């Protein structure tokens, strides 16, 4: 009794129990949908359908969207109804993306696409995720070397104008980068604006760390105009405390010697946040953040095999980026450039204007 395939061997009461025990491995259920498993695929027992679906999704770097509440039933009869929830379940039960890649292309096989990283190591694109990272890197409008030589000299105290110009470059760079990375331009423009308005200050801190931006207190206070307007001692102390927090976040990132590929992934994880208000497709943005996180994890595992805690350390740096007040960044770096124009307005204008954007008070081209 049951829906199994016909059996050529006749069963008798005396050998039935033995026969069932011998056949047991063939009747293991697919851990994803409950159909009959055809064996172990990518780390788990699955049916041919779920095996093929997972392989196709991983190899083609596919992103799905759930039209319901991201909790659709995945069984034999409903597995084709929601690809988002099916892939989510594949990952939840332990199917491994990297197992697909190993079967597809050996890590020893060279690839023509390489990107030089800040630590000098090439990024070998031997998986679909490395291709994603390559596109993130390619989207950078200002490679670190073009931020200016003064930026790369930690002991050099920059003048006020140079600080403001560098800050403008970094903000513009963050928006231009977002406009050119995979998937972001496909989002509704209202979602793009919402994501950048929420995360611009975190992206700014990551860019500041990446280019080793000098953060000396005196010129920063001068840039913020604190010397020109009377301010209570308490406010000055509070402001200096904010500068210290900014400095600490930058120094902690620099201490990890984060390379360019890792910075790109961290920025993508920050940018694709479902915390932004009014998103039209929260699930899709979440899936893009997961994709970026998986890319970082695979990259770190392959490039830094002797640092098993590195991926965790990088991710743990992200929540504390929000401790750097966006209003303080605005006061420190942008008040001289844009006066009372809100940064959020500038970001929207940059996004809509693209590379033709002109700063209100100076050119950064």
Automatic annotation (TrEMBL):
What GO molecular function terms would the record report? DNA-binding transcription factor activity; sequence-specific DNA binding; zinc ion binding
Q: Which InterPro entries match?
A: NHR-like_dom_sf, Nucl_hrmn_rcpt_lig-bd, Nuclear_hormone_rcpt_NR2, Nuclear_hrmn_rcpt, Znf_hrmn_rcpt, Znf_NHR/GATA
Record-level GO cellular component terms: nucleus
List every stretch annotated Disordered.
Answer: 1-23
Query: In what residue span(s) does the Nuclear receptor domain sit?
Result: 27-102
- Is the keyword Transport in the record? no
Which UniProt key words apply to this protein? DNA-binding, Metal-binding, Nucleus, Receptor, Transcription, Transcription regulation, Zinc, Zinc-finger
- UniProt lists compositionally biased (Low complexity) regions at 1-21
Query: Is the keyword Mitochondrion assigned to this protein?
Result: no
Gene3D superfamilies in UniProt: Erythroid Transcription Factor GATA-1, subunit A, Retinoid X Receptor
The record's annotation in Pfam families points to: Hormone_recep (PF00104), zf-C4 (PF00105)
The subcellular localization recorded is: Nucleus
Which positions fall inside the NR LBD domain? 128-354
Instruction: Give the protein family.
Output: Belongs to the nuclear hormone receptor family. NR2 subfamily.
What name has this protein been given in UniProt? Answer: Nuclear receptor subfamily 2, group F, member 2
């Amino acid at each position: 009794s049951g829906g199994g395939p016909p059996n050529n061997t006749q069963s008798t009461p005396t050998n039935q129990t033995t026969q069932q025990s011998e056949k047991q491995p063939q009747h293991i259920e697919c851990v994803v949908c409950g159909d009959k498993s055809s064996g172990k695929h990518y780390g788990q027992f699955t049916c041919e359908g779920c095996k093929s679906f997972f392989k196709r999704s991983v190899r083609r770097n596919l992103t799905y969207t759930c039209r319901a509440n991201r909790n659709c039933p995945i069984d034999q009869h409903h597995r084709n109804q929601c690809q988002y929830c099916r892939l989510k379940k594949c990952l939840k039960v332990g199917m491994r993306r990297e197992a697909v890649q190993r079967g597809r292309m050996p890590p020893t096989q060279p690839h023509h696409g390489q990107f030089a990283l800040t630590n000098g190591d090439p990024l070998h694109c031997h998986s679909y995720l490395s291709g994603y990272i390559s596109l993130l890197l390619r989207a950078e409008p200002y490679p670190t070397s073009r931020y200016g030589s003064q930026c790369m000299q930690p002991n050099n105290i920059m003048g006020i104008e140079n600080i403001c110009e560098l800050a403008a470059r970094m903000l513009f760079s963050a928006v231009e980068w977002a406009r050119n990375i995979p998937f972001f331009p496909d989002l509704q423009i209202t979602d793009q604006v919402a994501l950048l308005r929420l995360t611009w200050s975190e992206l700014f801190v990551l860019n500041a760390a990446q280019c080793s931006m000098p953060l000396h207190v005196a010129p920063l206070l001068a840039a913020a105009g604190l010397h020109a307007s009377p301010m209570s001692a308490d406010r000055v102390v509070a402001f200096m405390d904010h500068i210290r927090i900014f400095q600490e976040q930058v120094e902690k990132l620099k201490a990890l010697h984060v390379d360019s590929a890792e910075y790109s992934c961290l920025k993508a994880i920050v940018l694709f946040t479902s915390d932004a208000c009014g998103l039209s497709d929260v699930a899709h943005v979440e899936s893009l953040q997961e994709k970026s996180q998986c890319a970082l994890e695979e990259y770190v595992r392959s490039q830094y095999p002797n640092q098993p805690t590195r991926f965790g350390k990088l991710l743990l740096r992200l929540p504390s980026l929000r401790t750097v007040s966006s209003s303080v960044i605005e006061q420190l770096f942008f008040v001289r450039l844009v006066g009372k124009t809100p940064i959020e307005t500038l970001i929207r204008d940059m996004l809509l204007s693209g590379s033709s954007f002109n700063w209100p008070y100076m050119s950064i081209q």
